[in-house]
UniProtKB/TrEMBL annotation:
This is Alpha-tocopherol transfer protein-like. One of its GO terms (cellular component) is membrane. One of its GO terms (molecular function) is phosphatidylinositol bisphosphate binding. Residues 275-294 are annotated as: Disordered. The gene is LOC114252880. Residues 281-293 have a biased composition (Basic and acidic residues). Residues 91-255 form the CRAL-TRIO domain.
C-alpha cells in the first residue's frame, strides 16, 4: 500500500471532518479493490492514492464510495464530450494557455481548501466550446485527485469571474451542458465543493445562475456567493493574498500559474494517457445499463435558456 502521509494539520482535519482513521485505510482500500474486481462493467484505476481520494470524498462510507466510483466512470462513458480533449490535442494547450481555468498554487493556510478560478472571458467563444474548457478542467482535476491533499481533505473553492463575457459565452451554457457539468462535478467527483464566488456578473447572468442553482443539492445552493464588483466581500472568504497578481494578490501572475500547470500536465503525460482506458462497458453492467438519457435527461426536454 502506498499512500502519502498527511501534514499534521490536514490529518487532524481529515480525522474530525472525514472520519479518517489511519489504521483502517489499508483495509478500506483493499475492500474497494476486491469490490472493483467483481464489477464486470467497471474499468477503474486501482492506485491506492486514487482510491483514497474517493474514500475521503465520501467520508469513508464504503457504500457511498462505491456509488461515487461507479458514477465517476459512468460519466466518462455517457458524457464523452467532457473527456474528449486530451493533453496530446493542440486544443488542450490552447485552452490551458488562455488562462480560462486556473487552479491557484497558493493556499491561505496549511489546512485551507484549494482555490480555482474560471474566467470564461479569456477564451474565444467563437473558436472553443465550454465543454472543451470543462474537458481541460477535468484533466487538471485528475492530477489534483492524485497529489493535492489540501483539495482532497479541505475541499475546493471556486471563483467564477464573468468579466468580458459575451452573449456567445452565455449561449454555450445550455441546460443540457449545465446538467452534465453538475453531475460531473458535484455528483461524480470525490471533492468537497466549498462554495462558488461570482465576480463581475453581466446582464443575463441571472438566467444562467438560476439554472445552475436549480440543479445543485441543498448544501451547495447555500454556498453560492454573488459579489459582482465587491471584491472586499469576497476576501472575507478567499484571502486576497492567494490570488494572482492581476487580482491584487501575491499568488503569482496568471502566466506563471499557466506555466506551472503546463509543466504539471507534462509530468503526468504517461499517467494521463494510460488513464484514458478507464470507464464503463454498459453492455456488461449487471441489471439495466446506464444511458445518457437516464443520467442527464433527454436533450429536447429542457427549456432553452432565454437571454434578453
Amino acid at each position: 500500500m502506498s499512500v502519502r502521509a498527511l501534514s499534521p494539520e490536514l490529518a487532524e482535519k481529515a480525522r474530525k471532518e472525514l472520519n479518517e482513521d489511519p489504521s483502517r485505510i489499508n483495509s478500506d482500500i483493499q475492500h474497494l479493490k476486491d469490490w472493483l474486481s467483481k464489477q464486470p462493467h467497471l474499468r477503474a484505476r486501482t492506485d491506492d492514492q486514487w482510491l483514497l481520494s474517493f474514500l475521503r470524498g465520501c467520508k469513508f462510507s464504503l457504500e457511498r464510495t462505491k456509488e461515487k466510483l461507479d458514477l465517476y466512470y459512468s460519466v466518462r462513458t455517457t458524457a464523452p464530450e467532457l473527456f474528449s480533449i486530451k493533453p496530446s490535442n493542440p486544443l488542450f494547450d490552447e485552452i490551458l494557455s488562455s488562462g480560462a481555468i486556473l487552479i491557484l498554487p497558493k493556499t491561505a493556510t496549511s489546512d485551507s481548501p484549494r482555490a480555482s478560478m474560471i474566467i470564461p472571458g479569456r477564451y474565444d467563444a467563437d473558436k472553443y466550446n465550454i465543454s472543451d474548457v470543462m474537458a481541460v478542467s477535468l484533466v487538471l482535476q485528475k492530477i489534483i485527485m492524485m497529489e493535492d491533499d489540501n483539495a482532497m481533505v479541505a475541499g475546493i473553492l471556486s471563483i467564477l469571474d464573468l468579466d468580458t463575457v459575451k452573449i456567445s459565452h452565455l449561449l454555450q451554457m445550455t441546460p443540457m451542458f449545465l446538467k452534465k457539468m453538475v453531475v460531473a462535478s458535484q455528483d461524480a467527483l470525490p471533492v468537497r465543493l466549498k462554495g462558488t464566488h461570482y465576480l463581475n456578473t453581466p446582464t443575463g447572468f441571472e438566467t444562467v445562475f438560476n439554472a445552475i442553482k436549480a440543479l445543485l443539492n441543498e448544501k451547495n445552493k447555500k454556498r453560492l456567493y454573488v459579489h459582482n464588483k465587491n471584491y472586499e466581500e469576497m476576501y472575507k472568504y478567499i484571502p486576497k493574498d492567494i490570488l494572482p497578481v492581476e487580482y491584487g494578490g501575491s499568488g503569482g501572475s496568471i502566466e506563471e500559474i499557466i506555466d506551472y500547470w503546463k509543466k504539471k500536465v507534462k509530468e503526468y503525460s504517461d499517467w494521463l494517457e494510460e488513464d484514458d482506458q478507464y470507464g464503463t462497458d454498459e453492455t456488461k453492467r449487471p441489471g439495466k445499463p446506464k444511458t445518457a438519457e437516464d443520467m442527464f435527461g433527454v436533450e429536447g426536454s429542457f427549456r432553452q435558456l432565454e437571454f434578453d
